[in-house]
Amino acid sequence: MQPSFRSGRSNASFGTNCALLSGIDPAIISRANEIGTLAARGEDLVVICAKMSVDEIEELGEAESMARRFLGADFSRQPNNSGVDSGNDNERPEVLLENIIGEGYDNTVVMG
User: Fold this and answer.
1) pTM for the complete prediction?
2) Which residue of 51, 75, 92, 99 has the fewest CB atoms within a 10 Å radius of its CB?
């Protein structure tokens, strides 16, 4: 069967096929095809792409709360460097950060 060519614009992109063959995650390819179809129909992609899932909304809320705790933290107090343990570990910056980040996150604070 001979391929049929017509002049004009195509609504299909074969770039996603190349991406799939290159090992890109099929979920990403599917989303790209979906967005391409929406664009071809003249949909408002800004509105469509701005929608967040329930999980994304929850994650954003947690990140905002963490950022507010960080901005409200008092890092100006220096730990006791006199060689005498003050007994107050809450003054150490890494402890302050651990308190801000919380238990639900991986330990991202590098201990020195």
Assistant:
1) 0.44
2) 51
